[in-house]
Design goal:
Helices cover 39% and strands 17% of the residues. By secondary structure, the chain is an alpha/beta fold. It has two domains: 141 residues, Aspartate Aminotransferase, domain 1 (Alpha-Beta Complex); 253 residues, Aspartate Aminotransferase, domain 2 (3-Layer(aba) Sandwich), CATH 3.40.640. Helix 8 links the parallel strand 8 and strand 9. Helix 2 runs antiparallel to helix 10 and helix 12 packs across helix 14.
Length: 412
């Protein structure tokens, strides 16, 4: 991609930045509709990883030699870029993790062990990913707290009145997904955060699926914590971000012990480091961190207004095409929805659809998408899911539809 800022979104130009999109699978042009699982990476991200290992490889924070100083500077500059990208108030509010799951576990552990007691309540929703269910179940069981679940309607939308009814003085934490990985539902997280805080509760937002589709302003949302994974945001695997309000991160104890998160260690006592290092024990994914900076530089050049219009057009086009298939049912038809379509076809297992479509070069996700309670809510075992990114096209949807029609014909 050129260094100049693009004034208008151009999908064909964008696609040139992602070499994998030009490959073939089983002799067919790849149609990659599994972006909800992980996004593809532009050349600049892969190049940044290669450059680090070939010319800059060194550990960070601890060395006085040139390579260590260079690597430390490059890594810490990414924290500042992330602060700006999320509109956070302080760079110390950016904690690097392994991913969304790691960030949720960090808060569930650190917050839960010191702020939850018997009789307290934690609220999640019926559309949560397992990574935003299981850690809260574990800490609630340990502390004798109660986990409560916000119901959803048949369109896959949060029941806000039911949510208001669940909130009380016993509510200590509300942990909700911003955009559902299965339904595509965009939840009103700003409103839900304000309602929780009126009751004195703390809020964590799972932003794993929201960051690829829209700019995020954490101060505007207002939640105490916001977590996501870079591999969903066109960056490397193994790198995640936990944003936390500084006063909360200062107050919480470390999640893990080891190097870098300490000031002093004796056999009698350890004192902990300042933010953000208090929560970043051990050698991090340095190459991935530096490549995260390359991903942010790339994303900052894009026309996000154009991206959102393009993705909405893909969602509308794909939804219209799928609704024409007899016996096909879309799971999740919220009024506010991202470019994700989950569906079932009468009499056909989603896994079989996925296998046959792969033979025709089309990559979709099948199964329960780590949302088994949500599948139970809709009375199904799983779905096929097509999830679009800004580099996808209507022509690819046409190829997807052709493969789907052939698969249905073969399986009926």
């Amino acid at each position: 991609m050129s260094q100049a800022v693009r004034q208008k979104f151009n999908v064909e130009e964008i696609r040139k930045d992602f070499p994998i999109l030009s490959r073939k699978v089983n002799g067919k042009p790849l149609v990659y509709f599994d972006n909800g699982a992980t996004s593809q990476k532009p050349d600049v991200v892969a190049d940044a990883i290669s450059l680090y290992y070939k010319h800059e490889n060194s550990n960070i924070h601890r060395g006085v030699h040139t390579l260590s100083q260079e690597a430390t500077t490059a890594y810490e500059q990414v924290r500042e870029k992330m602060q700006q990208y999320l509109s956070a108030e302080h760079k110390e509010e950016i904690i690097f993790t392994k991913g969304t799951t790691d960030g949720i576990n960090l808060i569930a552990s650190s917050f839960g062990k010191h702020h939850l007691k018997e009789g307290d309540e934690v609220i999640i929703s019926a559309m949560e990913h397992h990574s935003n269910i299981v850690p809260w179940q574990m800490i609630c069981e340990e502390k004798g707290a109660t986990l409560k679940v916000i119901p959803i309607n048949d369109q896959g939308e949060i029941d806000l009145e039911a949510y208001k009814g669940l909130l009380s003085s016993r509510t200590k934490m509300v942990s909700i997904v911003h955009i559902s990985n299965t339904l595509g539902t965009i939840n009103p997280v700003k409103e839900m955060t304000a309602l929780a805080q009126e009751k004195g509760a703390v809020v964590l937002i799972d932003g794993a699926q929201s960051v690829p589709h829209k700019p995020i302003n954490v101060q505007e949302i207002g939640a105490e914590f916001y977590v996501f994974s870079m591999h969903k945001l066109f960056g490397p695997t193994g790198v995640g971000v936990l944003y936390g309000k500084k006063e909360w991160l200062d107050a919480l104890p470390p999640y893990q012990g080891g190097g870098d998160m300490i000031k002093t260690v004796t056999f009698e006592r350890t004192t902990y480091n300042e933010l953000p290092h208090k929560f970043e024990a051990g050698t991090p994914n340095i190459a991935g961190g530096i490549a995260t900076g390359a991903a942010l530089d790339y994303l900052n050049q894009l026309d996000w207004e154009g991206i959102q219009l393009h993705e909405q057009s893909l969602l509308d086009y794909g939804t219209e095409k799928l609704k024409q298939i007899e016996g096909l049912r879309i799971i999740g038809e919220a009024a506010q929805k991202a470019s994700v379509i989950s569906f079932v076809v009468d009499g056909i297992h989603a896994y079989d659809l996925g296998v046959i479509m792969d033979k025709m070069g089309v990559a979709v996700r099948t199964g329960h998408h780590c949302t088994q309670p949500l599948m139970n809510r809709f009375g199904i075992l799983g779905t096929a899911r097509a999830s679009f990114a800004f580099y996808n096209t209507k022509e690819e949807i046409d190829q997807f539809m052709e493969a789907l029609h052939r698969a249905i014909k073969m399986l009926k």
